[in-house]
């Protein structure tokens, strides 16, 4: 007679980690070194391939950035952009090529089913961007531009305070400024001053961040009118080295921004509401990688006898375990995994934000080209 004993139920297997998103880096621009490091740091991402115009250049980039020493397989090295896009083991491409090449290679990537993380400025004009976004939509791939500060936890914390009516009230004025002092080598030879490579110059490179900061502050409500500031600075080829604009909304909000390759490194964003003022002085790249500060003044008033302020602004410091560019890669990877592994749809928020940034940049450029006349954005 056999005796049977009931065995305890088997423990459920631990949930599987999602497969990492396999990135191909398309082009070896200097900014790509920062993203290569971000991909080494970001959970859920791995660099599967590097493509350049020669295999030797791709190898040099991979060696210099430590990609050949990453855990797991070394990235494949491709001697052409086409070869990287044809690589079946690449899920997504990071594309840091000059802006004039974005339409060609971003649409080609999308057509091959690769998700697209595109360096800013996204395009030379909205029509070009629309071609890229249409290609991504048709292929069902995720699009995101590489505006890194959007992904820092400080940005989410600032959003909470700006959105809080008691703390900030109604936003009425925004000022944004991003500049750095370029050296002579940059001003003569960098791709960002070449009309055939990056014709938008300072407007596309640093102005993009100023426009994004303004739109972020008003929850992406497009302005009614954009008027460029007079006396922009151009190089001999006609590329903008310094410029600015004023933005007007139908309800009376205004914003002013300045961007330049000719003045000291400055990254200011000020948001002034009816009840409060938020200041951040390193909004594009925080002073330090592990934490980022900002200040918030709310219900400010003069101290008695007008000898000071009361209350004083509060100082906030937001820590982060990962640098903002790695957080961006992590978020993009999460969106790709949702599409690739769970049958999800691309997240539409990111293309919409990119397009609004592009539309305002186009309006600013049109205003400059038309002798600083007002340009109606809402139409």
From TrEMBL:
Annotated ranges, domain GFO/IDH/MocA-like oxidoreductase: 156-278
Domain Gfo/Idh/MocA-like oxidoreductase N-terminal per the UniProt entry, residue ranges: 21-144
GO molecular function list: nucleotide binding
Stored Pfam families: GFO_IDH_MocA, GFO_IDH_MocA_C3
InterPro entries linked to this entry: Gfo/Idh/MocA-like_OxRdtase_N (IPR000683), GFO_IDH_MocA-like_dom (IPR055170), NAD(P)-bd_dom_sf (IPR036291)
Superkingdom field: Eukaryota
Database matches in SUPFAM superfamilies: Glyceraldehyde-3-phosphate dehydrogenase-like, C-terminal domain, NAD(P)-binding Rossmann-fold domains
Record-stated family: Belongs to the Gfo/Idh/MocA family.
Record protein name field: Uncharacterized protein
């Amino acid at each position: 007679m056999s005796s049977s004993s009931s065995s305890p139920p088997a423990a459920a297997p631990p949930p599987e980690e999602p497969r990492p998103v396999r990135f191909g880096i398309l082009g070896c621009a200097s900014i790509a070194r920062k993203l290569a490091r971000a991909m080494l740091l970001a959970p859920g991402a791995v660099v599967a391939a590097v493509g350049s115009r020669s295999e030797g250049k791709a190898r040099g980039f991979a060696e210099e950035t430590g990609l050949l020493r990453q855990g797991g397989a070394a990235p494949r090295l491709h001697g052409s952009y086409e070869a990287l896009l044809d690589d079946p083991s690449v899920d997504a491409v990071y594309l840091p090529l000059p802006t004039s090449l974005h339409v060609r290679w971003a649409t080609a990537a999308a057509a091959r089913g690769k998700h697209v993380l595109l360096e800013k400025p996204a395009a030379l004009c909205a029509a070009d961007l629309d071609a890229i976004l249409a290609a991504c939509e048709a292929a069902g791939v995720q699009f995101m531009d590489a505006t890194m500060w959007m992904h820092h936890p400080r940005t989410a914390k600032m959003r909470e305070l700006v959105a809080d009516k008691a703390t900030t009230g109604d936003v009425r004025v925004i000022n944004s400024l991003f500049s750095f002092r370029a050296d002579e080598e940059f001003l003569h030879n960098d791709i960002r001053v070449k009309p055939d490579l990056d014709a938008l110059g300072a407007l596309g490179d640093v102005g993009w961040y100023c426009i994004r900061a303004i739109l972020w502050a008003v929850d992406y409500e497009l302005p009614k009118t954009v008027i460029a500031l007079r006396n922009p600075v151009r190089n001999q080829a006609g590329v903008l080295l310094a410029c600015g604009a004023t933005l007007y909304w139908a309800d009376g909000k205004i914003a002013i921004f300045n961007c330049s390759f000719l003045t000291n490194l400055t990254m200011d964003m000020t948001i002034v509401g009816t009840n409060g003022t938020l200041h951040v002085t390193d909004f594009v790249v925080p002073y330090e990688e592990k934490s980022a500060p900002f200040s918030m003044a709310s219900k400010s008033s003069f101290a008695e006898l007008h000898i000071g302020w009361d209350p004083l602004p509060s100082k906030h410091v937001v820590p982060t375990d990962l640098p903002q560019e790695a957080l961006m890669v992590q978020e993009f990877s999460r969106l790709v995994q949702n599409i690739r592994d769970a049958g999800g749809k691309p997240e539409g928020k990111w293309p919409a934000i990119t397009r609004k940034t592009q539309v305002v940049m186009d309006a600013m450029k049109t205003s400059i080209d038309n002798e600083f006349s007002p340009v109606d954005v809402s139409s």
